[in-house]
Amino acid sequence: MPGIANLDVVRFQDRILRFDQSYVGDWQAWVNVLQSQRDVASNLGRVLRKWQACRPNRMRRSRAEAEHDPPYLEDLIAQANPSIRALRDFDMRLLASFTQQAQEALDQLWGIFRNLSYKGRSRNGLAGVVGISKAVLLLTEGRVGPAFDSEVRSQVGIRTPQDAREWIYALRFASRDIQAFEMANRCTLQEAAPSPFAAMHSGRIYDMALGPGRKAL
After folding, report:
1. Shortest CA distance to 195 belongs to which of 16, 49, 8?
2. What DSSP letter does each residue of 88-125 carry, written as one string?
3. CA 163, CA 167: separation in Å to the nearest integer?
4. Separation in Å, CA 121 to CA 44, 51, 124, 126
């Protein structure tokens, strides 16, 4: 069974504790940026480039960097903000979170962040699910996750989502995986997580459990 459904709490915690510490540092720095609301666009670009969100395509930059024509990262963030606000109560633990409003917001975010990249040999220069899902994970502060890079897709056992509908399906699949884990272990994702990470939103905790840096189990 893919994902975390068959893990007990000890193995689940072990996965998170083996998560690449450089990504933990990136995340905390990003949360600090969101709280301060300083240089959000340039920091979003910095993290996403470090996370190789758009390779092999070129990712958009901030207005101050002015390395391409509009839209800039500030413009994409401004376009995304209404949808981000619509997801403020979203919780990956709960299939009930996938309301019509939430799914419309996710669909809009897919359309916006396809433009995260603007030039390259893949997807006619547009961003794919890796860039889109990483941007949304960051901007929702971990409410919507995981980021569907190749390692996570392998762990969950899904094909690469090609459009918003398939991405939402993958998120719902992840939500069911979380629910199966919680039912088997009779605790929430936050109760199962190691204490330094227990206050994080469910999408981020799940992303860490499946993400890079672990040894084979």
Report:
1. 16
2. TT--TT-GGG--HHHHHHHHHHHHHHGGGEEESSSGGG
3. 6
4. 23, 19, 6, 9
Sorted by sequence, the CB contacts under 8 Å of residue 48 that are 6+ apart come out as 54, 59, 116, 131, 134, 135, 138
Whether the model clears a pTM of 0.85, i.e. scores above it, the answer is yes
- Quick count: other Cβ atoms within 10 Å of Cβ 161? 21
Per domain, the residue ranges of the chain are 9-210
pLDDT tens-digit readout, 165-194: 999 999 999 999 999 999 999 999 999 999
- How far is Cα 213 from Cα 1, in angstroms, rounded to an integer? 21
Query: What residue spans of the chain are helical by DSSP H?
Result: 9-17, 21-36, 40-50, 73-86, 100-113, 129-139, 150-156, 164-185, 189-192, 202-210
Which residues have C-beta within 8 Å of that of residue 16, sequence separation ≥ 6? 193, 194, 197, 205, 208, 209
Backbone angles phi, psi at 173, to 5 degrees: -60, -45
Which ranges constitute the DSSP H helices of 37-72?
40-50
The encoded tokens of residue 2 equal 């893919």
Asked whether 12 and 209 are in contact (CB, 8 A), the reply is yes
pLDDT tens across 27-73, in order? 999 999 999 999 999 999 999 999 999 999 999 999 998 789 999 99
